[in-house]
Amino acid sequence: MYLISQTKYAYFGYFCTRFLASMEAKKNELKEITILFAGDSGDGMQLTGNQFADTNANFGNDLATFPNYPAEIRAPIGTVAGVSGFQMKFGSTEIYTPGDECDVLVAMNAAGLKSSLHKVKKNGIIVANISGFDRKNLKLAQVETNPLEDESLANYTVQQIDISKLTQETLKDSALGRKDIERSKNMFVLGYLYWMFNREMKESITFLNQKFSKKPEILEANIKVLKAGYHYGDTTETFTTRYDVKKAELPTGTYRSIMGNQATAMGLIAAAKKSGLQLFYGSYPITPASDILHELAKHKNFGVKTFQAEDEIAAVTACIGAAFGGAMATTGSSGPGIAIKGEALGLAVMLEIPLVVVNVQRGGPSTGLPTKTEQSDLMQALFGRNGEAQTVVVAPRSPKDAFEAAYEACRLAVCHMIPVMLLSDGYIANGAEPWAFPKSSELKPFKPKFPNPKDYEEEPYMPYKRDENLVREWAVPGMPGLEHRVGGIEKEDLTGNISYDPDNHQHMVKTRAAKIDRIANDIPLQEIDQGQSTGKVLVLGWGSPYGAIKSATKILLEEGYEVSHAQLRYLNPFPKNLGEILNNYDKVLIPEINDGQLDILIRNKYLIPSIRLCKIKGLPFTTNEIIEKVKEIY
Amino acid sequence: MALTAKDLVTDQDIRWCPGCGDYSILKQVQSVVADLGRKREDIVFISGIGCSSRFPYYMDTYGMHSIHGRATAIASGLKAARPELDVWIITGDGDSLSIGGNHLIHLLRRNFDVNILLFNNEIYGLTKGQYSPTSHEGKVTKSSPFGVLDHAFNPSAVALGADSSFFARTLDRDPKHMKEILKRGNEHKGASLIEIYQNCNVFNDGAFFTFTDKETKAGNAIFVEHNQPLIFGNDKNLGIKLDGFKPVIVNLDDGHSLNDLWIHDEQDYMKATLLSRMFDAPSKDSMPRPFGVFYSTDRGTYESAMEAQIAEATEALGKGDLDSLLAGNNTWVID
Ligand code: SF4
Questions:
Q1: What are the pLDDT digits (tens) for B197-211?
Q2: Best mutation site among B14, B16, B122, B204 for ligand 1, i.e. most ligand atoms within 8 A of its Cβ?
Q3: B40 and chain A in contact, CB less than 8 A
Q4: Which of B40, B65, B319 shows the shortest C-beta gap to A487?
Q5: How far is A56 from chain B (nearest CA, A)?
Q6: Domain coordinates of chain B in residue numbers?
Q7: Residue B214 pLDDT level (bands cut at 50, 70, 90)
Q8: Which residues have any ligand 1 atom within 6 Å of their CB?
Q9: pLDDT at A328 (0 to 100)
Q10: Segment B238-280, tens digit of pLDDT
Q11: Right CATH number for A256-442 from 3.40.50.300, 3.40.47.10, 3.40.50.1580, 3.40.50.970?
């Protein structure tokens, strides 16, 4: 499914095959491969990459993908600014990141090569489309001399293929126009890669059949070119080595591929279904959150009500209205949109109604880097409103984990009558990985706190009467005898009537804060992901750096370092035992794609000299960056 | 048991200034809502911020006093989620036309079946006397000691420009007319925008007296009714006829007959826009200000279209099955 939500222009990736030590022993069997497709926005790199990922996932590899595209839909053709990239790592081992350095780079043009060469491993393979290196393309990429002709690629194994020309020849009898022919060249690359890695074409052929079922000519052309690419590898002598990446030993089960935004959408649907609530999603289009809206809009047959509002404020306030009416109200946006929603979120805090707010974070401040990833909205999530108005904050750690995190966000919102912020990011949103999806019967249902009007025939209904967790009941219009008024002005405890009483205000502020604290009783204790429960260094992560930290910790442990990894799902409140865990290590390292926001929270709450590792480049961490930092502070 | 207006009164003290036009509106609304035959629990009042927006606290129904300008958007979400509820929006000129202007026009074009009561007092009352988007040019207020520079909004033109399916204007000092209009608005299936001229006796006293005072009312206000000619004046001797698209005042004593006059047609959008342009500052030569239902047309509501789309999708795709959603259409097994 994640293919569908991708841009229709596939990229041509690079395959950077990693020349592992193991390769020498076993000529062509590799444990893992990182491959990067880089080409023009119109070259179909995302589609190619996703197809390649799907086929490998179906084959039984573990993998992780990372699309990286320009902010402009039509960035200048052939320029570095217009390069669209798709990186993925697949292997016979467990894979947690899309890879640091690439074993294979597929460069569709000079700009693709220029922007990505630094990521390619020494001796890595570069598959270059010759016609993407003509004078025009070199000029657009601002490259002086043709790298395919000078010595600059001496340290790599370069496969030069005139993909454009071979595609044209394959389709010389086709009735398609030049543009359509040119567009199908990504299929050549895909076919070639299938040959190179010993993969079958059948899944992609099925995919093409679905995609172009109404355009038989394009369908036929694409399949023809796909096969031509495959056979090209078969029949030419240019590239004699084929690689074998065996199936991964993954836990048994039924798998599918899943992207983060899609998983988020499904988590919301599942939560609404399992709690018996109507799902309402109010949203305003924004990168990189819009795919959640697209996904939900497809599932009207689940009774999902999607509402594309006139602006961010209407998106969230419509949710407040829907929640007042008893719906599982959810909204999604990215940092700038969340900023505009701020006042309304304050109202939701004040009303104490359930609301889930998905923030698919991107580079900031302001418009920032719309298509790049960042984790810089943590403080905004906790504090970004006027007054004392904290929200509950939950973060997924990977694309598939977004399902569980979204489900959990809904549970906390409904069971604690409170707005919950789900902090995803661009890297999770657009990344994909195999997912051993759950059965619906395995999902734990949860119950909204709807009062029974019968209980209030004698005593009056008090909208702000609370249970032991300080949670109020959710009386909604239509329930006779429970009519009440709520509002954004400070309210008297119990009755909800307007109150400007000084003591009442302090009491209410403290009560709302205590309500969040008590959620700590309703979330699991923090666990250690890898390593011992005491030791020298604890790497404390949250959100998308999970994969890089996990891989780094694994390697460090193998090398004999006393290092552990804990991954926070709950950022507010923290799990009850977090302080205890932090004190069990000499040093705590906090890697974040921001300037140290979790670090500030940890230092403030636990008074420990935690150490930051900050990367603010719009890019995820590499495994190596984490390894190096741990070694530096060790 | 039928509701009475009394049943809708809450135990909260009313905080409006003595003499404020809001009292009269509250009274009429309580009386109209009691007569609707709806159950109290199915009625919701949602307001934004401003003097008028305290309203929900005085109505013993479900209610929300929300944030500035957003009542319209909140009501949209509520109505989308719960189409069967009877939803009333209470807003003011600042709330709905300034900070909440965007939500108002979008609610109108979408045509949610709600009633919007726009209390227009041409001033910011709660913040103590700044000019509002409906204050007229040159008006001296606390924030415009040398006169307002802004050109005033014309709410009826805004509404019709946004394809509102119902627009009416009434006055706080004409309870009978207001009651009638409130009923009409509630009967209308779709978004009903009712502009109520409301006197703020503290910060903008008398803004509408020309249209309410005995001496001036007849010559400056015209009460339009469906299928009736446009007549006004002390002796009901003045009429308006259409000279092409131009309304002209004629005197029935001067040989003009009723047959010459413009006959009001609520379903005629073009005529409604002409009414909305009768908006000059009252003077000897100005057109009278129209009151009544300008425009009323039936077109589908958003919430019913939304329900229908869900029904269609369910029909086409089958009722959503969580397990097949989770599996998607491409799975593989690792064993
Ligand atoms: S300030 Fe004006 S509008 Fe507000 S309550 Fe007083 S009189 Fe009414």
A1: 999 999 999 999 999
A2: B16
A3: yes
A4: B65
A5: 11
A6: 1-207+301-335
A7: very high
A8: B 16-17, 20, 22, 51, 121, 125, 200-203
A9: 98
A10: 999 999 999 999 999 998 999 999 999 999 999 999 999 999 9
A11: 3.40.50.970
DSSP A115-132: HHGGGEEEEEEEEEEGGG
What are the CA-CA distances from residue B154 to residues A341, A438, B161 (Å)? 29, 57, 11
Candidate from B57, B63, B77 with C-beta closest to A317 = B77
Tell me the fold of A27-245: Pyruvate-ferredoxin Oxidoreductase; domain 3 (3.40.920)
In this prediction, residues B37-60 reach a mean pLDDT of 96
Model confidence at A5, pLDDT cuts 50, 70, 90, reads: very low
C-alpha A302: how far from its chain's center?
Answer: 24
- The reply to whether residue B309 touches residue A483, judged by beta carbons under 8 angstroms, is no
pLDDT of residue A240: 61
For tokens 């994969």, the residue is A547
- Name residue, tokens 């999770």: A428
Contacts of A291 (CB under 8 A, 6+ apart): A5, A259, A261, A262, A265, A429, A430
Q: How far apart are CA A417 and CA A514, in angstroms?
A: 13
**CA-nearest residue, atom 1 of ligand 1:** B125
According to the model, what pLDDT value does residue A70 have?
A: 76
Query: In this model, does residue A419 exceed pLDDT 60?
Result: yes
Interface of B with A in 48-107 (CB under 8 A): 49, 56-57, 59-67, 70, 73-82, 84-85, 102-103, 106
User: Tell me: the pLDDT tens digits for A349-359?
Assistant: 999 999 999 99
Nearest to B327 among A54, A256, A304 (CB): A256
**Which part of chain A is CATH 3.40.50.970?**
256-442
Confidence of residue A19 (pLDDT cuts 50, 70, 90): very low
Q: Which of A57-61, A86-90, B134-138 has the lowest mean pLDDT?
A: A57-61
Structure ipTM over 0.90, yes or no: yes
For ligand 1, what atom is nearest to the CA of residue B15? 5
Compute the mean pLDDT over every residue in chain A, rounded to the nearest whole number: 92
Tell me what pLDDT residue A164 has.
93
Residue A503, min C-alpha distance to chain B (Å): 20
d(CA A183, CA A39): 12
CB contact under 8 A, B326 and A440: yes
Residue A230 has pLDDT above 90, yes or no: yes
**CB contacts, 8 Å: B40 with chain A:** 480, 483
Task: Indicate whether A523 pLDDT > 80.
Answer: yes
Token pair listed for A281: 């999603």
In chain A, residues with a C-beta closer than 8 Å to the C-beta of B110 are: none
Closest ligand 1 atom to Cα of B19? 7
Contact at 8 Å (CB) between A310 and A339? no
CB contact at 8 A, B131 and B104: no
Q: What angle is formed at CA A278 by the lines to CA A274 and CA A280, rounded to 5 degrees?
A: 120
Residue range(s) occupied by CATH 3.40.50.920 in chain A: 535-633
Position B196: which residue type? Answer: I
CATH code for the part of the protein at A535-633: 3.40.50.920
CA-nearest residue for atom 8, ligand 1, is B20
Nearest to A319 among B44, B77, B329 (CB): B77
Q: Does domain B1-207+301-335 have CATH number 3.40.190.10?
A: no
**Cα-based distances in Å from B320 to A305, A608, B180:** 13, 50, 46
Contact assignment for B309 to A300 by CB distance below 8 Å: yes
Atom 5 of ligand 1, residue of closest alpha carbon: B16
